[in-house]
Write a structure and sequence with these properties.
Length: 196
């Protein structure tokens, strides 16, 4: 059997469609049986809607692709009213990726999600902290610990923290998240890249 656990949560297999690569699963449901997956992590959602980045968002390279999508999403409330019902209609573990531009965005988003029937929030701390000049929450131990602690105060969900690969010291940020109460870690969000 391929059953696996994330903390105390059992998945029927370890295959999880990653956030940002699978949207909410709707497009892929025409091609594969989503019930075969162990889990699906939603596109990143934020308290307020986001249009995403202007210009070219996807750039193919000989060894993969670069992206600059910019967290385009309809908002936490719209996700709950529209996309969440689709995701919950399958047998996989629904994982909701929560992002924010400031601490309050994360906290208020988590409060809205607390009322819904799912187990895991993937806390995306690779987003720019607008109050700190745009540096991602996951870049420093203090910022990471602050956001994780704040979410643990308002949520009873399993908090899986999605780390930034661009942190100055990723292992120390991971330890700070653990100390703040993170239940698990997700490695990793988008790597920096430059197309010339």
């Amino acid at each position: 059997m391929l059953k696996t656990k994330i903390g105390e949560i059992e998945l029927k297999n370890p295959v999880i469609a990653a956030s940002g690569t699978f949207a909410y699963g709707e497009e892929f449901s025409k091609y594969i049986d989503l019930n075969k997956l162990g889990g699906v992590s939603s596109n990143g959602i934020t308290l307020s809607p986001k249009d995403g980045n202007p210009g070219q968002r996807i750039y193919e390279t000989p060894s993969g692709m670069m992206n600059s999508v910019g967290l385009q999403n309809p908002s936490v409330a719209s996700f709950i009213d529209n996309k969440f019902k689709f995701m919950k209609s399958f047998e996989y573990e629904t994982i909701v990726n929560l992002s924010g531009n400031c601490l309050n965005d994360y906290v208020e988003g988590a409060k809205l999600l607390e009322k819904e029937d799912f187990n895991i929030i993937e806390l995306n701390i690779s987003c720019p902290n607008v109050k700190e000049g745009g540096m991602a929450f996951g870049m420093t131990c203090d910022a990471a610990e602050t956001v994780v602690s704040a979410i643990k105060e308002v949520s009873t969900k399993h908090i899986m923290v999605k780390l930034s690969p661009n942190a100055f010291n990723l292992s120390e940020v991971a330890r700070a998240c653990e100390a703040a109460g993170a239940d698990s870690l997700s490695l990793v969000n988008t790597f920096n890249a430059l197309a010339i």
